[in-house]
Amino acid sequence: MAALRAAVGADGVLTDTEVTASYSRDMMPLAPSATPVAVVLPSSTEQVRAVVRACAAAGVPIVPRGAGSGLSGAANAVAGCVVLVTTRMNQIIEVDADNRLAVVEPGVVNLDLRAAVEKRGLFYPPDPSSYDWCTIGGNLSTNAGGLCCVKYGVTTDSVLGLEVVLADGELLRTGRRTVKGVAGYDLTKLFIGSEGTLGVITRATLALRPLPQAPATLVAAFDSTAAAGAAVATIVREGVVPSLMEIMDQTSISAVEQHLNTELGAEPGCAALLICQSDSGGDAGRRELAVIEQVCRDSGANLVHATDDLAEGRMLLAARRSVLTALEVYGAWLTDDVCVPRTRIAELISGCERISRECGLRIAVVGHAGDGNMHPTIVYDPTSEREFARARTAFGDILALGLRLGGTITGEHGVGKIKQEWLAREIGPVGLRVHRGIKAALDPDNLFNPGSMFSMS
Amino acid sequence: MAALRAAVGADGVLTDTEVTASYSRDMMPLAPSATPVAVVLPSSTEQVRAVVRACAAAGVPIVPRGAGSGLSGAANAVAGCVVLVTTRMNQIIEVDADNRLAVVEPGVVNLDLRAAVEKRGLFYPPDPSSYDWCTIGGNLSTNAGGLCCVKYGVTTDSVLGLEVVLADGELLRTGRRTVKGVAGYDLTKLFIGSEGTLGVITRATLALRPLPQAPATLVAAFDSTAAAGAAVATIVREGVVPSLMEIMDQTSISAVEQHLNTELGAEPGCAALLICQSDSGGDAGRRELAVIEQVCRDSGANLVHATDDLAEGRMLLAARRSVLTALEVYGAWLTDDVCVPRTRIAELISGCERISRECGLRIAVVGHAGDGNMHPTIVYDPTSEREFARARTAFGDILALGLRLGGTITGEHGVGKIKQEWLAREIGPVGLRVHRGIKAALDPDNLFNPGSMFSMS
């Protein structure tokens, strides 16, 4: 403890259990957590190095975290650990508009970066749902996605280089400031999505894009999920790349309609809504939306509405983004993030309807239809042990369904402390062995986030 | 040798030294090579596994290779090795147009894949200069780039998953068939660009894009490289993303003009040409080219010519692609592939002019201006030991210049067997230690391509 105070100053070490408890877990209710022995808030790379060296010397595990918006328990404290919080390292060090890049510390809030680069006519695409409070460091560690991914990819696609503190306190610099580069192994992308198990990211060089055109928005209502799924598959097949393509099932729609006390433009009994945007601008944007509109009509949409109005588009997106909040009227929620081939979305939704009937719990399906990344969200009574148990079973049933459909157990939330067994199932024994080999090579004493993602034995 | 014949059949093992010599090296004259003890041509993943197990048991190193079009000696044989050639594994196993992906064996020629998916209205972007004879396996192992990268990224941006034979003969499957996925470490991108040092890629799942619109082309001539460099920086700054933006310096231009017996539309004494394309189509494409045209004029271009004519566009690109061939009139060539921030291109070109004067050799600079990846190409008399020595010195001087300008030693060709010391210089001792740790974890006996990229001691 003295070493930690020497490393970051007395005000950077929290030990009051009432305070440290608030740093013990993220937003995933299923994941186990513990109260950390201390929470440290370093302000610089050098302080992170000192903390890592102190913990390594004392054999105390470190769980790195940002804002704690994660949905897999990756940032949850483990017994006897120090939680290393990066939120004080929140400087945007550089925005280089000429080379379209930014250099940031890990504690920068996603929205703050977006706003800062937008002033320079630039765009940082990754936009996880928690973008107004999650941090870039957490986004990097989980390889976060968002609504932008159908056109702009996930976090790893926007990163040029990293600075990482390793388990022995040494500082590793990966990547570069140039657009291309193949000097050595792609360590940048190895650390991205490694969920704090390989090191602590203390700085990142991010690739920016030109600010896209103002988006035009289209909403289409379907009276079957199969029709909506067929529309998505055909849009993909037609070669249109919308900047956003979201789907909401009947349960999501009615929850949001009640929550916002509004109609989403759908007739009563509407089974699925598609919300699409194009940010191509001009006639390219109009052409894209026209193709999408035609496909939706051909697939049996009973309502299609397109608009250039920015306020209306924002309102539709706000409705989409409010699904989880809207569901809280009915209970606590537990959200999956399976990703399936885009041709299998309708099957995923109908499978979730079956699982809902089997477990007797409401399951709302909402998701990023454009890339097949779906969020079936199970609603349960948090005061009922039995409902929680049924929710847990349904959570696993949905993962199994995703795998059966040729998908992955996690499209953007990560493995964390809830899907270790599922990871082993997805990647198999050879994959697991390679993971353990890499972890052992970089973190031989299992200092960083032990037991998260996979166990070493 | 018996084990190899058992593994791949007698016709899959070559030992005649006149034949094996032709598999001893790639296209980089600087790199050391040796004659392999055998060349094996497996036809299946199982055969690759058998070869790897046989070599591992006998302690014989394996150098994997495709067509041998590489420019860093990565595929060059080392003493006492078996060269494992993947060209017989040349099946396109699947093209799934609905999910925009293809599954291929490593020996498929890049152009064959492009043609096969184009028939389905799809596009595989990576287009290294050797695209008409290089293989996908080699592209994956070097993380190859090309002319497309300014808009579509490098090879790693088009890969969803891999099948890799590891040093113990086990088969690792990485990645997935879905657009997104964060289950575990990003092993796919770790193997891409690892230059055959970690395993043998036997299958790849590739992400495809919709076929872009027919390209419109613009060529601009400048009477100083500084003006051309300024135009590139301003185009980037203006937020235009052309589908291609190539630069040729005076030496390249005159070599090509002589070679093709044509004028490239430039006045005599033209110092630099920019060739740009937009594949956005319609008014979006016209808008992009109009911005580029205006920027070129404002930057002092003395000739700007835009055309929708496909044949004329192809001719201009063919001229650009013929630079290396054109230079062969003057001697052998040695090409660098430094990548610098896009604002530093003019400085790179003027630095190469200085190096050319110092070494007394012709240096043509041609490159992918849109992403700062430049190919200064040194021309020397291959019969003169002294010229070759001077060319080697100039090659290193250009790498040092690239690093000084904030760039990397290799944007797309790789480290191979010529830039090991430069890699160490670029990534530093901590980076090198991490590389060695990962290599040791995956290939403890240093079976695959030993000494390439970096040495283990």
Automatic annotation (TrEMBL), chains A, B:
<dbReference type="InterPro" id="IPR016169">
    <property type="entry name" value="FAD-bd_PCMH_sub2"/>
</dbReference>
<comment type="similarity">
    <text>Belongs to the FAD-binding oxidoreductase/transferase type 4 family.</text>
</comment>
<dbReference type="InterPro" id="IPR016171">
    <property type="entry name" value="Vanillyl_alc_oxidase_C-sub2"/>
</dbReference>
<dbReference type="GO" id="GO:0016491">
    <property type="term" value="F:oxidoreductase activity"/>
</dbReference>
<feature type="domain" description="FAD-binding PCMH-type">
    <location>
        <begin position="32"/>
        <end position="211"/>
    </location>
</feature>
<dbReference type="InterPro" id="IPR006094">
    <property type="entry name" value="Oxid_FAD_bind_N"/>
</dbReference>
<keyword id="KW-0285">Flavoprotein</keyword>
<dbReference type="InterPro" id="IPR036318">
    <property type="entry name" value="FAD-bd_PCMH-like_sf"/>
</dbReference>
<dbReference type="InterPro" id="IPR016164">
    <property type="entry name" value="FAD-linked_Oxase-like_C"/>
</dbReference>
<dbReference type="Pfam" id="PF01565">
    <property type="entry name" value="FAD_binding_4"/>
</dbReference>
<dbReference type="InterPro" id="IPR016166">
    <property type="entry name" value="FAD-bd_PCMH"/>
</dbReference>
<dbReference type="InterPro" id="IPR051914">
    <property type="entry name" value="FAD-linked_OxidoTrans_Type4"/>
</dbReference>
<keyword id="KW-0274">FAD</keyword>
<keyword id="KW-0560">Oxidoreductase</keyword>
<dbReference type="Pfam" id="PF02913">
    <property type="entry name" value="FAD-oxidase_C"/>
</dbReference>
<dbReference type="GO" id="GO:0071949">
    <property type="term" value="F:FAD binding"/>
</dbReference>
<protein>
    <submittedName>
        <fullName>Glycolate oxidase</fullName>
    </submittedName>
</protein>
<dbReference type="InterPro" id="IPR004113">
    <property type="entry name" value="FAD-bd_oxidored_4_C"/>
</dbReference>
